[in-house]
Amino acid sequence: MRAGGFGSGFALAVLAGLLFVPPVRAEWGSAGTGAHYDTFDTGQSKEKGSQFYVPLNVRTGPDSPFFLGVGSGWVDTSYQPASGGEKVRVKTPLDTNVTAFYTIPWGGACFRLGASANLPTGKATLSARERTAEIDRNYGDLVGVTNFGRGFDANPGFSMALPLGKLTLGVGFSHNKTGSYDPTSDVANDKLDPGDETTGKLSIGWDGDRVRFLIGGRYMAVGADKVEGKEIFREGGQAAANLKIEVFPAPVGFSLESSYQAWAKNKQATGDGGLAAEEVASFGTDWRYRVGVQYVPVKNLTLELFANGHTVQANDYAKSSAYFDGGRNALEGGLGFDYSILAFISFNGRFAYQNVKDKADAALSQDTTYKGFKSSLNLVARY
Q1: Contact 97/58 with Cβ under 8 angstroms?
Q2: First to last CA, the chain
Q3: Cis link prior to 194 (omega < 30° from 0)?
Q4: Which residue from 151, 253, 159 is spatially nearest to 194, judged by alpha carbons?
Q5: Cβ of 280: how many Cβ atoms within 10 Å?
Q6: Whether the model pTM is above 0.85
Q7: Mind listing the pLDDT tens digit for each residue in 233-255?
Q8: Separation CA 360–CA 249 (nearest Å)
Q9: C-beta pairs of 206-210 under 8 Å, 24+ apart in sequence
């Protein structure tokens, strides 16, 4: 459950929509698809990987109080281990996420009630060899899809936004009830039930004529992971803060996003069947940021120059410990565009170079640097 970006969970997504909903015109809904290709390797070993991903999304428009969205996709991932062993390749549909909520205006405030669900249409059960194709599962920097499937999850929640002139105050809450699944086909009696997640968030947003910003904080409590009904691990609570600033293009604009995450100590199974807190925190603090400069040369075209960063600090274990994690520094930079062909059809694309450095730890004898490229082209049709 370590991997994360600028926010997750039903209430968080709904809250962001409540704070900033700029309807441009009447729109019943939209459908989108595309092609994403990521590749990386390291000159220090034979390790390399690539991924081709096709997203599929359908959603209703912003003008109705009822929202319904469905998202899924298909992925083809290849991974060559550092040892030089046989290449692993997995091709599979992905899980399907369904989100539905209803917006209720009341006394100047705005409430949204609803739920999202993860439908297990992907490939949750993999062989131990296939599992290595879930590349960079903890951090999600090298490729876009790091999880091919899991169990059925139900995530009900609510959010509220209170406008105060150009300022908007928001609060959100959700509880993700996770479903069990068999993660490994060639290991008996390992049915996994990940811990449930309960998340609360507070936000302050400002929506000006050309500038808007969002500041938020959240806390997520995670229940114990169980294998065959027995508690084996409990992730420490996660506290996070995020910031987003946008200056709309006229014709040049600017955007900045940043998030910071920290974890409490985890708990692990003991010999007597209980869970005991670790000596020190095994997850180092995590900071992500994104900077973009946008330029609108003509009305229906936006160009962007962007840079993304991700820093994970070393955890608190001694370097001699088997639990030591040395941390990571990841940088990504590139160009993007958004182009409207017609009023109801648009393309967008991103092309970037990445450099990811994992620091030596219990699993790596020396610092390892991954270099690669990311590219994506997407088509969106509005109706």
Answers
A1: no
A2: 36
A3: no
A4: 151
A5: 12
A6: yes
A7: 999 999 999 999 999 999 999 99
A8: 42
A9: 206/166, 206/167, 206/168, 207/19, 207/20, 207/166, 207/168, 208/166, 210/247, 210/248, 210/250
